[in-house]
């Protein structure tokens, strides 16, 4: 929308080219490009891009909007705007330049393989041309699951008639309604002009959907500061960071946090300690920034900075209690249960736990709320207690009550350490496995409460 006008005697003829960046690579490769739309600063492109999407991986995309000199190469074009962004985020234009806005809409594709063939005609359309009749064509819009409409097909133009008959065409049902035959398809009739402008000749009916706001993901971190980790200043400590590499705690935090922060709009993350010597009146759990009224840190870098600062200023202590921080996040999650908020708690620990019974009780209670728990184990421990909390084999129970959903995912960090010492590769492997269950856990909460997909504002 509102692209720069690069033509002298008319408007721009834009095209969008999608580039993808491989994991661990700095090279951008062209994935595909849309059709060119003549003489407009507000194009609606019909051609779609189909990509494999992985919640647990960072997949960088770049959208170049250009005015092509030739359809076969972007090199002869005037570049209007570039928008690199990770999948799962939305970015507008280029900072410092008013290039316009790129609107992206993504939806998981169904497995429907049906196709539909149709032929349409119209009668007594409006006369739009001064010296002739009209040059009508049809535009089809699919109804998305969030209530918006997206262009999905254009017919050919039939010249100089008010009673057009368009050629038969075949379209995948997945493109028309994503396999959902109950969705509305809107059809508009436009008059074509040589200058690229189009005037409505007739407009078809469309359903109006009113849905609540989209789901917001909220991320909370809890890091084990108990004495069982060893003194941070000693190389034998799990918190020890050499001048050349981060500690396992910091690597786990960055690996998970840098992926999940793309799904949190405000990038403010509450961070807690489990547990260090603190004043007797300090709250439990203890905020890393020692601010009980506002325990949030700005971005993952803020959490990491707060963690490193805590290592320099606090003394590691015990016991290792998980229940307080789980109950803290559960209390926040219980305030909004309509699906507009979902919470993810990351606990990084050496595996020693002092309140197993209370933790099981907290997990059973939290399983009925919009939240998930990720536990990353660092160090050489066997982690039997953490495996028990995971609940993959046997659902967690407490006092005769079983967890309503499996909301805990545990992984030992040592299983993802690259043998060559490549920390970037270790972090990517960890993030991929530890976040893999979050989408299904979120969906399980929505489905058990019959919560429908949410509307997204452009």
Question: What are the defining features of this structure?
Answer:
Immunoglobulin-like, 458 residues, 8 helices, 7-stranded mixed β-sheet, 4-stranded antiparallel β-sheet, single chain, alpha+beta, 3 domains, Rossmann fold
Can you write the helix and strand succession as a string? Answer: EEEEEEEEHEEEHEEEHHEHEHEEEHH
The mean pLDDT is 81
Low-confidence stretches: 69-77, 90-94, 203-213
As a percent range, the share of strand residues is 15-25%
Largest sheet: 7 strands, mixed
Percentage of residues in helical conformation: 10-25%
CATH class division of the largest domain:
Alpha Beta
Q: What radius of gyration results from the CA coordinates? A: 27 Å
What is the annotated CATH architecture of the largest domain? 3-Layer(aba) Sandwich
Whole-number total of structural domains: 3
Q: Assign the CATH topology of the largest domain.
A: Rossmann fold
What is the molecular shape? elongated
Structural class: alpha+beta
Distance between the termini: 11 Å
Tell me the number of helical segments per DSSP (H or I, 4 or more residues long): 8
User: CATH H level of the largest domain: which superfamily?
Assistant: von Willebrand factor, type A domain
Q: Please count the beta strands (DSSP E, at least 2 residues each).
A: 19
Organism: Ciconia maguari
InterPro entries: C2_dom (IPR000008), C2_domain_sf (IPR035892), C2B_Copine (IPR037768), Copine (IPR045052), Copine_C (IPR010734), VWF_A (IPR002035), vWFA_dom_sf (IPR036465)
Keywords: Repeat
Protein name: CPNE9 protein
């Amino acid at each position: 929308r509102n692209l720069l006008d690069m033509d002298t005697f008319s408007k721009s003829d834009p095209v969008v080219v999608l580039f993808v960046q491989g994991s661990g690579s700095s090279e951008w490769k062209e994935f595909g490009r849309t059709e060119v739309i003549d003489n407009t600063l507000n194009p609606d492109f019909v051609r779609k891009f189909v990509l494999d999407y992985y919640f647990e991986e960072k997949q960088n995309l770049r959208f170049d909007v250009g005015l092509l000199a030739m359809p076969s190469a972007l090199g002869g074009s005037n570049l209007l705007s570039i928008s690199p962004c990770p999948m799962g985020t939305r970015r507008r234009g280029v900072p410092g330049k008013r290039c316009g806005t790129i609107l992206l809409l993504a939806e998981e594709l169904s497995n429907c393989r049906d196709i539909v063939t149709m032929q349409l005609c119209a009668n007594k359309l409006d006369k739009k041309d001064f010296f002739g009749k009209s040059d009508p064509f049809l535009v089809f819009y699919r109804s998305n699951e969030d209530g918006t409409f997206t262009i999905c097909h254009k017919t050919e133009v039939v010249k100089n008639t008010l009673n057009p008959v368009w050629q038969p065409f075949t379209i995948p049902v997945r493109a028309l309604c994503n396999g959902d035959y109950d969705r509305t398809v809107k059809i508009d009739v436009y008059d074509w002009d040589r200058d690229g402008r189009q005037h409505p000749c007739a407009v078809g009916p469309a359903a109006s959907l009113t849905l609540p706001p989209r789901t917001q993901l909220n991320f909370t971190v809890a890091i084990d500061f108990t004495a069982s980790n060893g003194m941070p200043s000693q190389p034998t400590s799990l918190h020890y960071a050499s001048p050349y590499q981060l500690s396992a705690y910091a690597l786990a935090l960055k690996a998970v946090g840098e992926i999940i922060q793309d799904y949190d709009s405000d990038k403010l993350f509450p961070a807690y300690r489990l547990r260090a010597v603190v004043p007797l009146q300090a709250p439990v759990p203890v905020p890393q920034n020692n601010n009980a009224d506002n325990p949030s840190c700005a971005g993952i870098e803020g959490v990491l900075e707060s963690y490193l600062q805590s290592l320099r200023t606090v003394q590691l202590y015990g016991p290792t209690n998980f229940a307080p921080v789980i109950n803290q996040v559960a209390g926040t999650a219980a305030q909004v249960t309509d699906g507009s908020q979902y919470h993810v708690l990351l606990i990084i620990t050496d595996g020693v736990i002092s309140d197993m019974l209370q933790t099981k009780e907290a997990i059973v209670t939290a399983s009925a709320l919009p939240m998930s728990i990720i536990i990353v184990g660092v160090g050489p421990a066997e982690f039997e207690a953490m495996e028990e909390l995971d609940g993959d084999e046997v659902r967690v129970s407490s006092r005769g009550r079983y967890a309503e959903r499996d909301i805990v995912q545990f992984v030992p960090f040592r299983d993802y350490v690259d043998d060559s010492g490549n920390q970037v590769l270790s972090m990517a492997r960890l993030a991929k496995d530890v976040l893999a269950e979050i989408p299904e856990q979120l969906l399980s909460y929505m489905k058990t409460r019959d919560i429908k997909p949410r509307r997204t504002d452009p």
